[in-house]
Design brief:
Elements (H helix, E strand, L loop, with lengths): L14 E2 L4 H10 L4 E6 L2 E7 H4 L20 E2 L4 H11 L3 E5 L5 E6 H9 L2 H4 L3 E8 L5 H10 L3 E10 L3 E9 L3 H10 L3 E2 L4 H20 L2
Parallel strand pairs: 1-2, 4-5
Antiparallel strand pairs: 2-3, 5-6, 7-9, 7-10, 8-9
Length: 219
């Protein structure tokens, strides 16, 4: 199986702090990167943004703009979800990779990480998606797993897909098991179901009609 570290790239060498802004502008013309890594005597000191470079003086060096460098990076030991989070938080399509000794190893490209994501069982395997919502203080990943497995479901993956100061939304992919029974169990544990489910909607429709009939008969 492919490991995420197989995607560490070195096709383009890191920029140097003593490179001129003019040469860096030329570099970004030839690539589609939003940022790129900068080394100072082989030590990673941050990434320079393509948009920023356009506004810098061409006769100066990267070292003159150290204050503008962005310090994000991924560790070689990071799992792919954490790497994806680095991309998202920093609005970048390139993330430098460092080992545990802070040595620069290369970079991840967003396109490659998305490709890796598509090869994971979460997307590749057949299954159903449920999105649930609960108070940020009350949700539990172990409880979510228990709910799925107690209904004979096989959990293919889950992650926090949205969050506020009050609540979280968790996307869950499930194989096997009765989706409706799993959904009803989540409700019993006070999880709100955010995703739309045909079977679930059918049961809700039946319940609404039954409630209406009860009201009609009691008039």
């Amino acid at each position: 199986m492919t490991e995420i570290t197989d995607y560490i790239n070195n096709d383009d060498k890191a920029l140097k702090s003593q490179d001129t802004i003019e040469s860096v502008q030329d570099f970004f013309i030839d690539v589609s990167y939003s940022h790129f890594a900068v080394l100072d005597e082989e030590v990673y000191i941050g990434s320079i943004a393509a948009d920023d470079v356009e506004t810098f003086d061409t006769d100066k060096k990267i070292a003159d703009y150290k204050y503008a460098l962005e310090g994000f990076f991924a560790r070689k030991s990071m799992i792919w979800l954490d790497v994806l989070e680095v991309f998202a938080k920093n609005h970048t399509n390139i993330v430098p990779v460092l080992d545990d000794n802070n040595s620069y190893l290369g970079y991840y490209e967003l396109e490659d990480i998305v490709k890796f994501f598509h090869e994971t069982p979460f997307l590749k395997e057949q299954g159903g998606i449920i999105v649930v919502k609960k108070s940020i203080l009350d949700y539990s990943m172990s409880q979510i797993t228990q709910i799925v497995e107690s209904n004979n479901g096989k959990l293919l993956g889950l992650f926090v897909s949205d969050a506020t100061v009050d609540s979280v939304e968790i996307t869950i992919k499930i194989a096997l098991g009765s989706m409706n029974e799993i959904i009803q169990t989540f409700r019993r544990y006070n999880y709100e179901i955010i995703s739309d489910h045909n079977d679930d909607n059918y049961l809700k429709s039946l319940k609404e009609r039954s409630d209406y009939l009860d009201k009609y008969l009691n008039i």
